[in-house]
Amino acid sequence: MADSRGHLVFACGESLYAVPAERAQEVVSLPPLTRVPGAPAHLLGVFAHRGEVIPVIDLAMLTGAKVDQVSKRAVLVRVARGGLALIATRVAGVSVLTGPFDPLGATGIQAHLSGPATAPAGQVAVIEPEGFFEFLARGA
Amino acid sequence: MTEPIDQLEGLVLCRVGDHRIAFPASNVEQISEWALGDRPVPQARAAFSLPPANGRCVEDGLGGLVVDSLEIASDPLPLLPVPAMLLGAVGGALRGFVLLADQLCPVLSVTEFAQYLGRSKA
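Predict the joint structure of the above. Result:
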């Protein structure tokens, strides 16, 4: 099964992720971040971008994957309620993915990731932006 | 671009380790010295996983907390709104952010931040 929508594929740590291209606003270079008091480790901090405060999320920390690279780049994702930046150690570009697009789990962050889909860069976990955002908002 | 929701007239800018936090000056009723061994007061350092240290106790009428050091900023500053993802963060104590030397600084309610720190300790 193919999803004809383009997805922006990027790496965070050793894993590849994809977000629908229409939700990927831009790839940004991160300035020094401001920590939010009491924030979980995966919420690296916030920065100001065009007058808006943007939270920065490390997917590798969020999913419990090995964190061995520090990146100063992030994919800015836009959903109806706001924006968030996802740390990207590498950006592979926009691709059409082929399925499966099954949820990777029933609970937690895995419920908002699907796949493993296939992109030219390799197997990717596809982020469902709205649910992903709401999940993070509940836990921030 | 998101427009600032408010203009803050006076801030108590606080150092907590390498971090900065701020409280609206109108929210602060008393500032006093605090040292290890004094009466127990929630420590802002706990929110950054730092051990307790001597500092200044910032209080409003309902609660207080200890920060490392502080200064008063009287210039009006635009308050940037809390992003939707963080509306529930810090126990709802976040009031917004101000930009200081191109870096964001979280603005918090003294009472709610103190309550949050008290709950986190428990």
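The beta strands of chain B are 6-16, 19-24, 30-34, 55-59, 64-67, 69-79, 94-100, 103-108.
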